[in-house]
Amino acid sequence: MSVLTIKDVTKLFPGGTKAVDSFSLEVADGELVCLLGPSGSGKSTLLRMVGGFETPSAGLIAIDGEDITRMPPEKRPTGMVFQSHALWTHMDVFKNLAFGLKLRRLPATEIKRKVEAVLELVGLGGYGSRRVTQLSGGQQQRVALARSLVLEPKILLLDEPFASLDQHLRERLREEVRDIQQRVGITTLFVTHGQDEALSMADRIVVMRDGGTEQIDRPDVVYRNPQTPFVAGFIGTMNLLEGTVANGIFTRASFSHPLAVADGPATLAIRPEALDVTPAEPGAAKVHRVTDYGTHGLLDLDLPDDTRLKAMVSHPAQYRHGMGVNLTPRAVSAYRNNAQIFRSEA
Amino acid sequence: MTATEAGALAPAPTQRKRPIGLLLVAVPVLLVLWLIIWPIISAMIQTIWLPTPEGGRSLSVSSYEFFINDPYSRANLSITLWTTAVCAVLLLVVCLPIALYLRFSDSKLAAYVQGLAIFPMFVPSIILSFAFIRVLGPNGTVDLLLNSVGLPKIKSPYLTPWGPVIGLVWDNIPLTVLILLSGLGNVSNQAIEAARDVGAGRFALLWHIILPRVSNSILVAISFAVLGIFSAFTLPYILGPAAPEMMGPFMQRTFRDLFDPTNAITQAVITFGFCILFGLFYVRSVAKNRTP
Ligand SMILES: Nc1ncnc2c1ncn2[C@@H]1O[C@H](COP(=O)(O)OP(=O)(O)OP(=O)(O)O)[C@@H](O)[C@H]1O
Ligand SMILES: [Mg+2]
Hints:
The complex is a heterodimer.
Chain A: E1 4-12, E2 18-27, E3 32-36, H1 43-51, E4 58-63, E5 66-67, E6 78-81, H2 93-103, H3 108-121, H4 137-149, E7 155-159, H5 167-184, E8 187-192, H6 195-201, E9 204-209, E10 212-217, H7 219-224, H8 229-234, E11 239-246, E12 249-252, E13 255-258, E14 264-270, E15 275-279, E16 285-292, E17 297-302, E18 308-313, E19 324-329, E20 333-336, E21 339-343
Parallel strand pairs in A: 3-8, 3-9, 6-7, 7-8
Antiparallel strand pairs in A: 1-2, 1-4, 4-5, 9-10, 11-12, 11-14, 12-13, 14-20, 15-19, 16-17, 16-19, 17-18, 20-21
Helix pairs in contact in A: 2-3, 2-4, 3-4
Chain B: H1 2-9, H2 18-48, E1 49-51, E2 57-59, H3 62-69, H4 71-104, H5 109-118, H6 125-136, H7 141-148, H8 162-184, H9 189-197, H10 202-230, H11 234-239, H12 247-256, H13 261-290
Antiparallel strand pairs in B: 1-2
The complex binds adenosine-5'-triphosphate and magnesium ion (MG).
Magnesium ion (MG) binds next to helix 1 of chain A.
């Protein structure tokens, strides 16, 4: 039953890098929040500050209302799973898991019971006597997760725990981790720069950029209603068109679309699946490439000024390179000065 | 670890290439046989195949008997063992903290400390010896400084058993620090942070996480130091007491000043025996650590 509060936290590294810039977030009890952002956006730094491995330059971090901002990691009720290379290779699996319990001076029978239970939980029952070097990458990360869980931390922190695994394994493990997290009901902060991971696991997503927050929302909301052009471009595939609005019409090269906002520059965002295409000669755009995925097709379209757009179609076979098409967006959002100024639902 | 990695990386030898490989190995092997193994064997033979008064030669262990029964020889052997043991302990006590500091500090000072720790490697023992005498010897710098503030002189370690100890420790710091440091490189930051995360304080971290990972390096470093120190010559010769003396100067004096090659070689063989013992101990422990 734990709530994590991060309030106006800033991290200034010696040398002047502002890795995190007055960041605030409240993670509810049992919630899984993903920190999502491009490389260097300060995700790891933020997570390490919660874990106690970096000290914030300013701000406050609290768990259940208790200020832990200056508490060293060994005293914090947090458990961290690192990207890789964090298991102790001179110990077997059992000893890796038992180490923290031994430091807490639990009786041996209790340690054994807990370790076996948590190994069962992560699907590695009976692996206790294995050396960690004899485990696959996926199994190693499961041991790392178990090592944190066995201590029953109030907050679980994961820093790209699947980054060094292959695609298949990553997908399987993230389902497993989500399962375990929900079963245990542990409050979790998860760092990733994979949007799939964030969209499929998170209760809420924090989109980070340059140490700050761009948007904090449920995954479906972040996907359907991105609040800034950065989020729009970062989550999923998105056509971002820079253009101008005059008399209620947005224009970019040969493309125009009614947009009920004040005159001036604007960025129009259209999902490929929300862009209807109809063959027309000469048409507003030309087909550059057709990709057939079996279930659907993806068209690469060029405006006369070489702006590239993507559109999803159900019958790709009817399109050829060089064909003219007209474009009709079913849903758009528009941005000006890094803020949303218009949005239409499909 | 390194051996198996190297083995895994090396391409499988094909039948055709084998003679060239053998030929390449043959050169160092023959050199070792000629310059090391043969002299050892011949030295051993010389110490047990002794001239008889009748002018012939016969099998005899009398030179070893002499060494064992001679109190002076025994004292020399014990002072050598004592010096070696004390140096090994001091080296660990001095170098482990330095190596730990260098591995885990990210301050600018660390670079200077590293430079300072490696520095003795570039100083010839003979210069080190004279520096030692000028600083710690009778009426040396330390005495002058103490005198200038009205304090009594120090009891100089020069020409006592502690003289060679101080010199040898100083001389061996760079290699020991470097070997320990390379061992500490095996301990990843994430492994350390994970240990702190589960609640390990400084001591638990050192004892349960860091030391087990560098135990091999400690063994290697101490073995190298011990082998070098046991048969050291220059530093004990210049800084040590006249009697008892360490095996190095003892052999030299027996050979040059007493014109007694048989006993000098006997001393050498005994020294060699001890070094082999250390060597075997080292090989065994490394092998044991490697096959879990
Ligand atoms: N120890 C440090 N000293 C100085 N600067 C640092 C340090 N650690 C991180 N930074 C800087 O802080 C910024 C944020 O780094 P951080 O590791 O938090 O990014 P990230 O979002 O985790 O990126 P990635 O997805 O690549 O892991 C970067 O510009 C980085 O160079
Ligand atoms: Mg990171």
